[in-house]
Amino acid sequence: MEKARPPSAAEAVNKLKSMRNPRNVAGMARFGINPKNTLGVPIPQVRTLAKKAGKSHSLAQQLWATGIHEARILAALVDEPDKVTEGQMEKWVRGFDSWDVCDQVCSNLFDRTPFAWEKAVEWANRKEEYVKRAGFVMMACLAVHDKQAPDSKFLAFLPLIKKHSTDDRNFVKKAVNWALRQIGKRNPRLRKAALKTAKEIQSIDSKAANWVAADAIRELESRK
Length: 224
What we know:
Elements: H1 9-18, H2 22-30, H3 43-53, H4 57-65, H5 69-78, H6 86-94, H7 99-108, H8 116-124, H9 129-145, H10 151-155, H11 158-163, H12 170-184, H13 188-202, H14 207-222
Helix pairs in contact: 1-4, 3-5, 4-5, 5-7, 7-9, 8-9, 9-12, 12-13, 12-14, 13-14
């Protein structure tokens, strides 16, 4: 049987547009998702379209260039991690304008590239809100997806998490907290180290740091 031809970028975008839902856009905005260039297509439908499209690095580039919210999430789902360059990662991360695009790209593509560990540290130290968020999202995703990584690589993230726990920007502090919790949930040794870091963060005179610590301690101490 002849293999089905993958859709062109125009065909994929037209399919997304056919599923647009303005009511969903309004609901997404209430959760802090940027409504600009957003169609309101639910993620499960975007994933279904990605499965039908298959993997294609060139299609991913074209989809990203449209600037359409869901097309950019689709781009991350169809791209090929081994073909992603450092230049592409820098271009895309600077284009993040919503936390969900940031999280979807990091968790479905960027954390599977050869540059993942390096970029997690580099971006965590950057000032731009979504770039900084991306750094900590990468840490969280690596803790979940990189099953072979040694504990030492995650222990090296903890001082960065502590250092940036005072950033009171909502999308940054939530990512810092996420990274701390996911590292702590990886295994008993890292749980102990993450709890120690959380308690150090708790002593910092910062409302953001106090929230990051309290939420992480609550989850990690509740786990057997």
